[in-house]
Specification:
The chain is mainly alpha-helical. The chain contains 5 helices and no strands. The radius of gyration is 18 Å and the shape is elongated.
Amino acid sequence: MKINLSERQFTGVFTAEVGATAADHVEAVRMESAFRLLETTNRTIEQIAKTCGFGTPETMNRTFRRRLDTTPGDHRHHCRGDHPMPIPVP
């Protein structure tokens, strides 16, 4: 399907209709997918990053830190109630 809008026109229409830029919307959809997979699967962070379109775990990690001030691993532990055991001090 082809529409007769310039990139600038498309950006304006998209932002007006969705309430966010296309890039912000895509990132939000990726975050939502990553959240679901972190909470419901045992896939590795690397597998989830690739599946959700982040490309690398580092990119997903930076996005989580910027948007949520946490990491994907910390989110997984928090939502599952997994709290690592403290390392005993001899």
